[in-house]
Amino acid sequence: MSSPAPAAAYDDTWVVLPTYNEAENLPGIASAILERLPGATLLVVDDASPDGTGALADTMAAENPHVRVLHRPGKQGLGRAYIDGFRVALDGGAGRIVQMDADWSHDPASLPALVAPLQNGASLVIGSRYVRGGGTVDWGLGRRVISRGGSTFARLVLGLPAHDLTGGFKAWRRETLASIPWERVHAGGYVFQIEMTHLAHRAGARVVEIPIVFRDRRAGTSKMSRRIVVEALLVVVTLRWETLRGRRLRRPWTGPRAR
């Protein structure tokens, strides 16, 4: 059995955790995160949760210096919650930034393995359900088809190397995350995950996938909807068009064509 990592091993690591009505999950998931990444900083980004998640996070932060809270005035989309959290983490001196869900679908036990490749040259590490050793638990056929189909569609249309493009369990190197032009991000919802990986890849990031098992949320209800699926399809097509247009604009002029 390996010995636990010293607290200093993760003192430059921030975990950005968006929440909306996650009061049932927050105490347990926060404890598990900090246990797996001793010395790390947990940033809870709460969107004025009606169930008191934000107030609970404030209490936790008052008791633990490794917990911080960013309050937003209301729901503005998952992507915007992450971007706001990323800014705070970068301003706070984070060298490695992890993003994950608060509903236990992302297992905190996988955190050390998710962060480790950043020490070996990776720019972005994706916890992947769709590589050998990865998978999903407690999902119906429809949800599996939508998720895997969405990743495959985005991978083919955008020419991306990663297999899991819709998942949100990721670890970023500071320099990679800071170099992404956030003002170009179209999406505030779940397609934000595809868009960020696309922008990182176009900027030359080395993207690595590690296998994870994704479990359905323990408490509360899923926030997936038909609107989110439609948004994802439209944004992926838009990103492809912008990529093609950008290539044409950068193509050097070679003079008039002969007739």
Count of extended strands: 9
Rg value: 19 Å
Distance between the termini: 74 Å
**How many domains, as an integer?**
1
CATH superfamily heading: Spore Coat Polysaccharide Biosynthesis Protein SpsA, Chain A
What percentage of the residues does DSSP assign to strands (E)?
15-25%
Structure description:
The chain is built from 8 helices and 9 strands. It has 259 residues and is of the alpha/beta class. It has a single domain, classed as Spore Coat Polysaccharide Biosynthesis Protein SpsA, Chain A. α5 (141-158) runs parallel beside α8 (226-250) and α7 (192-202) runs parallel beside α8 (226-250). The model is unreliable at 248-259 (pLDDT under 50).
In short:
By secondary structure, the protein is α/β, with parallel strands linked by helices. The chain contains eight helices and nine strands.
